[in-house]
Amino acid sequence: MYKNTHPNAPMTEQPSMIGREAVMPEQAENSLGDILRRTKGLTAEQVKDALDYQNLNGVRFGEAVVALGLATSQDIVWALAQQFHYPYTPTSEGELHAELVVANTPFSEQVESFRELRTQMLSGPMGHGDDRKALSIVSSDVGDGKSFVAANLAVAFSQLPGRTLLVDADLRNPRLHEIFGVDVSSGLSGILSGRAAANVIKPVKHLPNLYMLPAGVMPPNPAELLHRAAFSLLIKELLGKFDYLLVDTPAASLGPDARMIAAHCGACLLVGRSGRTRVDNMQQFVKQLKKSTVRVGGVLMNDH
């Protein structure tokens, strides 16, 4: 799928709220059986039956519980996630948008690609310490799946220690508020025009350590707003308050916005769609980005 901690930010430890009971850090050290007893109401006798089945058949405890009809496979995955402090929301609960595959299916091959991409970005373009950069997610054409990548990569970052902020700087056709279910009546456009309400940065429900700054009301002059010094100052301020900062952008074909945003962020990931994105368009866009000294972290050919 993929080709080619900031010391001053707040670090908070909090329970993982994922549509069931909160599992505190000390509880997560318990055994799988203990977690299932609390969440599925298993009796001591049922746990003993599962242990006997495990020993008799040489299987894992979770497999024994499923074989005896005491829990489902998804229950086991959820319990394992709690045991290892891993944010996870089962798709069947319908709490998160289906496009958030990193949250809904965290153990799939597709999600492993996002983890690998996260590692590549941290070890390369995003830098470390005083050289930290915000990561802009850019594409040359509309429909490349850029917002899908930005949303899932942000979820992947939020699963690391620290706080992650996702900014929707697509002031032409924003989508992230729909994916995360966040109110878009106030946001980035309000900040840049000097009309921002308080608390425009919102925590994302069910995803601890992930925050979002939505695009806000679509303005008639997006390029002019993003060109203002206020945007550059905002990026610097947010880098001081969050451990990881990702910024979604409009397609380059719609205007100069993406190039300006990438220049302010300092680093970017270029997204294309397999079988659709024109290679010459991407190459031309990369040349433009490099002229503005943006660190191009790589090219991801998305097939979503």
TrEMBL record:
EC number: 2.7.10.2
InterPro entries noted in UniProt: Bact_polysacc_biosynth/exp, P-loop_NTPase, T2SS_E_N_sf, Wzc-like_C, YlxH/NBP35
Listed name of the protein: Polysaccharide biosynthesis tyrosine autokinase
SUPFAM superfamilies found in the cross-reference section: EspE N-terminal domain-like, P-loop containing nucleoside triphosphate hydrolases
Keywords assigned by UniProt, alphabetized: ATP-binding, Kinase, Nucleotide-binding, Transferase
PANTHER family membership: FERRIC ENTEROBACTIN TRANSPORT PROTEIN FEPE (PTHR32309:SF13), TYROSINE-PROTEIN KINASE (PTHR32309)
Top-rank taxon: Bacteria
Pfam annotation, one family: ParA
UniProt keyword Oxidoreductase present: no
GO molecular function: ATP binding; non-membrane spanning protein tyrosine kinase activity
Species, as recorded: Aquabacterium lacunae
One cellular component term from this protein's GO annotations in UniProt: plasma membrane
